[in-house]
Amino acid sequence: MPLVEHLRELRNRLAKGLLAVAAVTIVALVYSEELMQFLTQSVPTCPKDVVSNGGNCAIVSFNTLMAPFSTTIQLSLTTGLVVASPIWLYQLWAFVAPGLHKNEKKYTYAFVGAAVPLFTAGAYLAYLILPISVKVLISLTPEGSANILSLGDVLDFTLRMVLVFGLAFELPLVLVMLNLTGVLTGRRMAGWWRGVIMGVFVFGAVITPTTDPIGMIALAGPITVLYFGAVGFSLLNDRRRRRGNPDAGLDDDEASVLDLTPERVGAVEAVSAPRALPEQATGEHGGAVRRLNGYDDIT
């Protein structure tokens, strides 16, 4: 296809994706109040006739005049992007797929097929842990102080937790893809296990600020299991790759073996003298030209 046709196809693909996002956003605007209540269930709100005192409960409210409008628009757009993601991701894939090779398409199908369930599992785990984290954070409020939370901040915290947990569950998949492309070996990933486990548990302790280790283990445990699963897959894939490659056991810095067996000089066949061109067979005056090894005297 010429460049103009590619640009026209890209425009049509983007238009279809944007229409899908706009349609879902409009539906989310209609049900924006229900969505806000669903996403703020993790916050222990105070009754209407009770003022927040200490860390028992919190008051969720808007603190500026434009906050209700901006929060509703932000929530609806985010819902539109997430819910309509299968449509606009398919449009992007349909535009890129004709330029990929068969193996690249196979890897892409495998990556997407594994990435969606992993991200969904991480997001669901975040939604389960979120009430515990929010309750612990609110309990840190000093006695005599009131917890008045902005609804926008609560929604931002909820979405951030869901995204962080979902992306954290993609780490083993990224390691597997790096191994399939030859960037990382299973042995090297296995050598990182101490640092990876330490980093995962520290990450779980920071993201889930609870006083008990349940939240930290709930996040770090599945990621650790997935990491060792990725290491095991990479080791098996490296073994399969070595069986199919006869040079896999050679070191890159090792010199190849040279054949130093001497040859007999007499076995070399004599090279015949080059034949002279027809116009060089005679001299300028028609006389014969003296030649030595196929060349005349002057040469």
Gross morphology:
flat
Overall pLDDT, averaged?
Answer: 78
Low-confidence stretches: none
Distance between the first and last residues' Cα? 59 Å
**How many strands, what sense, and barrel or not for the largest sheet?**
2 strands, parallel
What class do helices, strands and sheet pairing give?
mainly alpha
Strand-and-helix sequence, N→C?
A: HHEHHHEHHHHHEE
Strand fraction equals under 5%
Question: What are the defining features of this structure?
Answer:
299 residues, mainly alpha, two-stranded parallel sheet, 10 helices, 4 strands, 3% strand, flat
How would you describe this structure to a colleague?
- With 299 residues, this protein is mostly helical.
- The protein is built from ten helices and four strands.
- The chain has a two-stranded parallel ribbon.
- Helix 1 crosses helix 3 and helix 9 packs antiparallel against helix 10.
- It starts with a helix and ends with a strand.
- 16% of the residues are buried.
Q: Summarize this, please?
A:
By secondary structure, the protein is mainly alpha-helical. The protein has ten helices and four strands.
Helices, strands, pairings?
Layout: H1 3-30, H2 32-39, E1 59-61, H3 67-83, H4 85-96, H5 102-139, E2 148-150, H6 151-168, H7 171-180, H8 186-191, H9 193-207, H10 214-244, E3 291-292, E4 295-296
Parallel strand pairs: 1-2
Antiparallel strand pairs: 3-4
